[in-house]
Amino acid sequence: MHEGLVCMKRIDWNALDEQGRGDALARPVQSRAAELRDGVGRIIAEVRARGDAALRELSAKYDRCALTALEVDDDEFTAAEAALDPALKAAIREAATRIEAFHRAAAPQPVGVDTAPGVRVERMLRPIQRVGLYVPAGSAPLPSTALMLGVPARIAGCREVVLCSPARADGRCDAAVLYAARLTGVHKVFKLGGAQAIAAMAYGTVSVPKCDKLFGPGNAWVTEAKLQVSSEPDGAAIDMPAGPSEVLVIADAAANPAFVAADLLSQAEHGPDSQVILLSDSAAMLDRVAREVEQQCAELPRAEIARQALEQSRLIAVASLAQAVEVSNRYAPEHLILQVAAPRVLLAGIESAGSVFLGAWTPESVGDYCSGSNHVLPTYGHARSYSGVSVASYQKQITVQELSADGLRGIGPCTATLAAAEQLEAHRRAVTLRLAELESMT
Hints:
The protein is an alpha/beta fold. The chain is about 45% helix and about 15% strand. The protein contains 16 helices and 14 strands.
């Protein structure tokens, strides 16, 4: 293992000009280089043209496995469950219970309002009929992602839930991922990864059903594939733009530096393009955390990955916690940890973040696994305009309106006036003809 020193850049926010502040909060470059775009485009075209045959060839090329059947069968689910440690199965069930409790409570509800006498406006909810879930299995399998995607899909009532996850060299999916998928009620699981999995779910093949919307994180190839299929009229919608995992921590002078360092490293170990940022109004805290990061990193099995991520990371001195909140809102982190004495005081000022973790006893890790919130969150600054996955992500909200005769008498003139102002005569007449008919009936 490489024993090089951890490198986190130290910055004084108030010594920077506007350009410097922008540079300080810059994410690692996510290149949509022509080579990546073209490579993904070729994979998508192959899957669309040759379906299952292309999927088998691409799996052999990229996942180094020969697939006789693309879909996981009952025997494989049974073997996966039998192979898992009972403690892991219990933890997956426990996590699923809390995820379901929160997502069910937070799910949108139908609404009905009388906006005027005789004017009823309603919102009804309908599930997206067929959804596709992607669960990565690169350097480590992610059964937690199967839970985060599968539970809200089940609550929403999606008619068919399809899941793709890459197979190992032996042609099987990770046992924990399969157990989590079956537990959440996923209907079909396919041993497919990468851009080819996204293409299969977006356009359909003989084996893989065409899905209306795709969910889940992935590497640059998966992300690019999601962007490409979502831009095509006959492709599929996607949950959100995605990028590498990230965390921003705000810590005051009383924070535990060991806790802060552990939280930073928990994100840094995701991958070399992850980013972690610490904001503090205490120079001493920045120093102590830097030392803790170096000591703890040396003990991690994924230390080399974490070190690479830390090269893109920052220790930023701010003048006050209020300024730290301003900087955080500008960055719009996927995960925001408030390691301060009174975190709820700061919470009121938070405008943009995927998920927020309050106080010393709330590590980001609990949100990744089993607190009940969802860990599929907007990254790369998209928290300014996107939300994390929820039951609402799997539903369509359809409005309904119904007017009585008196209701039309009441709001018809307003409608006609606005239609005339926009020079849409047919719109106006659709109202005035009815008003005239009502007048003749009196």
